[in-house]
């Protein structure tokens, strides 16, 4: 008879040595024979505490993805989670839209399994301590509270970006992320400004991350409209998110260590809907 993995802490190391190398995918696959096709894992010796979809908004960061997979699979397996890694890639000729990609990841992941917990994870953030649990609680959790780029301090109190965890029901209640934020910044602040939930954070000694250094992407410049849009959060949130999500799924590829979705986010059509909020 199997029991719930309640004593998971005996499997954990606490502070980790983060690896910054980027092995070839064949090498990574050899490292993790326990991981099933599509990047899923289910512990065999106990009942996992949560069913977790790890959703990564992504575009053209192959080296970062390999580094991320090297670190994250061992991290999650030690926490005895049932999980799967979903990489949601936007086509190349559009302005990056992190919030909309995460909404797509949620919808498409739920078609494959009824995931109870969602972890939205930037590909360039690597956890430093496996005592930072990647499962959901009764309030949304901001997991990446202490990042080396910010001297392990919160850059501002309402930050929710980087790595965050919500239950499926919490995500539905707030209508997911806004689809309106094209370019860098705004989608996480928009969610917090709704004020529908308080946000939980683990102490900084556990919620520590290293950021992979990289240059700014050419199609991910700061969103000049983000501050205007944030003024209208309480007016727009029901209309922008899961409720009006439009996209075209171009491809799903099931790789050994992750499932990748390639999507067209219909930028031109979507931008027309917010033009009046971005004028001036």
From TrEMBL:
Pfam families: Glyco_transf_7C, Glyco_transf_7N. GO terms for cellular component: Golgi apparatus; membrane. It comes from the Eukaryota. Residues 141-215 form the Galactosyltransferase C-terminal domain. Keywords: Glycoprotein, Glycosyltransferase, Membrane, Signal-anchor, Transferase, Transmembrane, Transmembrane helix. The keyword Transmembrane applies. The keyword tRNA processing does not apply. Belongs to the glycosyltransferase 7 family. This is N-acetyllactosaminide 3-alpha-galactosyltransferase. It comes from Trichinella nativa.
């Amino acid at each position: 008879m199997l029991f719930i993995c309640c004593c998971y802490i005996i499997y954990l190391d606490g502070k980790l040595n983060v690896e910054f190398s980027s092995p070839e995918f064949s090498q990574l696959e050899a490292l993790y024979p326990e991981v099933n096709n599509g990047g899923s894992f289910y512990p065999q010796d106990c009942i996992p505490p949560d069913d977790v979809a790890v959703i990564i908004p992504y575009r053209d960061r192959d080296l970062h993805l390999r580094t991320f997979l090297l670190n994250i699979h061992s991290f999650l397996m030690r926490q005895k989670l049932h999980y799967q890694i979903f990489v949601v890639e936007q086509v190349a000729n559009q302005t990056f839209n992190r919030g909309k990609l995460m909404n797509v990841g949620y919808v498409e992941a739920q078609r494959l399994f009824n995931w109870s917990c969602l972890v939205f994870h930037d590909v360039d953030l690597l956890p430093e301590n496996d005592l930072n649990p990647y499962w959901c609680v009764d309030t949304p959790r901001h997991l990446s509270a202490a990042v080396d780029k910010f001297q392990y301090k919160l850059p501002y109190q309402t930050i929710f970006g980087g790595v965050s965890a919500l239950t499926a029901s919490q995500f539905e209640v707030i209508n997911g992320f806004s689809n309106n934020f094209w370019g860098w910044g705004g989608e996480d602040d928009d969610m917090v400004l709704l004020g529908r939930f308080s946000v939980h954070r683990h102490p900084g000694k556990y919620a520590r991350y290293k950021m992979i250094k990289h240059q700014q992407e050419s199609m991910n410049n700061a969103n000049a409209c983000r501050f205007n849009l944030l003024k209208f959060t309480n007016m727009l949130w029901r209309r922008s998110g899961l409720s009006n999500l439009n996209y075209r799924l171009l491809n799903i590829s099931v790789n050994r260590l992750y499932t990748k979705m390639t999507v067209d986010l219909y930028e031109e059509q979507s931008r027309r809907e917010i033009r009046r909020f971005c004028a001036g």
